[in-house]
Write a sequence for this structure.
């Protein structure tokens, strides 16, 4: 079981990776992780990146400790998107990490009516079991943002936020959530490039089903 300091280091690593890869810039985005061992630290439920800080320049001591209802414990000011993160953790007990980013190509598709619903690349099926759904628009930083994703959390680990980027959850680690964002951004980028060359025909339904079956068997879900 990771210690709080190890998780602080991991959130900083994740934040810097997102920044270096151009998946967020300036003060954009936020990263959080659920703290283990709640019996040892009652009320201390998660660590989160602070508001109005560049994610590429964070130090472990900069992270904010939040309680079960999102209240700040100690010093610092949490991201304005903390209600989204807190809501996800409350609704999904198995989730240990949440990442919200404004990855450019993914966000561009989130500004279109169809999102990433076309089945062009098999990687999307292998990664997620299908195209990431898109939550309806909700104002950034509002309680409505969690309401917009609530019914989609069981459907996919990655959800596009209409006009607002992407949110990814993981039951494994912070970096796993980061890599989900990165992989979907790669799919979005390739899809955009391919669309410049012509139409984007859907992958054959039988091939889609075969990929999903393979993913389920590999994950031990069959």
């Amino acid at each position: 079981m990771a210690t709080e300091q190890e998780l602080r280091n991991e959130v900083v690593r994740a934040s810097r990776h997102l920044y270096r890869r151009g998946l967020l810039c300036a003060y954009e985005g936020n990263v959080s992780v659920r703290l283990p061992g709640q019996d040892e630290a009652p009320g201390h439920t998660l660590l989160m990146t602070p508001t109005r800080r560049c994610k590429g320049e964070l130090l472990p001591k900069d992270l904010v400790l939040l309680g079960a209802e999102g209240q700040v414990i100690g010093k610092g000011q949490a991201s304005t998107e903390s209600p989204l993160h807190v809501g996800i953790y409350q609704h999904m007990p198995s989730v240990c990490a949440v990442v919200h980013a404004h990855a450019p190509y993914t966000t561009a598709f989130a500004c279109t009516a169809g999102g990433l619903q076309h089945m062009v690349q098999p990687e999307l099926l292998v990664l997620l079991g299908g195209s990431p759904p898109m939550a309806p628009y909700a104002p950034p930083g509002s309680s409505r943002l969690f309401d917009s994703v609530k019914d989609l959390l069981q459907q996919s680990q990655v959800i596009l936020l209409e006009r607002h980027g992407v949110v990814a959850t993981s039951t494994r680690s912070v970096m796993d959530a980061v890599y989900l964002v990165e992989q979907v951004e790669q799919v979005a980028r390739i899809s955009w490039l391919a669309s410049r060359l012509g139409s984007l025909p859907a992958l054959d339904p039988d091939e889609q089903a075969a990929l999903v079956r393979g993913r389920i068997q590999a994950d031990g879900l069959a």
User: Anything to note?
Assistant: The mean pLDDT is 89. The radius of gyration is 17 Å. The chain has one domain: 4-218.
